Amino acid sequence: MKEFFGFGGYERTPEGYMSWQHLLFVSLLMAAMIALAVVLGIKNKNKDMKIKNKVLIWAAILIDGFEIFKIIICCVRSGDISSILHMLPLFLCSIQLITIPLAAFAKGRVKEAALDFVFIFGILGAVLGTYGAGQNYSAYPVLSFDNVVSGITHAISGFSSLYIVISGMASMKPKNIWISFSILFAFCIMATIANYTIPYNYMFLVRGDGTPYDIFYNMVGGHPVLYPMIVILLFVLYMSIFYLIFFLVKKHRAKKLQTMEEH
Question: How far apart are the C-alpha atoms of 164 and 240, rounded to whole Å?
Fold first, then answer.
């Protein structure tokens, strides 16, 4: 247990990023994530919003519970309470620590926008935080506290995203688009401030750290202005394309349904 939690440092040599151990572990997590989302989503699809929301409440409690437990262990392990400054929810994936509870407990347009934000970024964060987490799997053994908890929290984000769309909770109303974009920009601003003051590398706006963002970091030679601008533009582009595809699919389905009714 001491070795699993990393007290005194891990004695095992990390299996490595994209090793078969890494790929097997995260693939099992993704399979469980998808299976649960499909089963619960289909089960609750025709239920009222209150019943659908219970699943999100549990997702919110679990994702924040695991993260709080992780913070406590990391602080005890390092013996330095200030290490919490490196665990703030200011990564694209960790924004879900706030938006999933908002989606579960908020009301009105804030709830709708939070549901849409989790739907849009939850699955992306799950993939990037497992298959793309080169910074984690290069540094720690696969079956270690750091990677297991990180894998679980990212899987909960992906589960929430899939569950929201399968159960029919996503509203994706045009009037709420600006709120979803505002959430993204607010966290980008807070991450930038934290990166300059702590300093750290929140949202990977400073460097790629072994993640796919390294492609763009190397492309511009690590330019301190161009690189973070590219990363933020990628977020905006992804979000915009997601909305566009959603509305096109919705329009196509509506036309198809209308044609069937006419015949």
Answer: 19
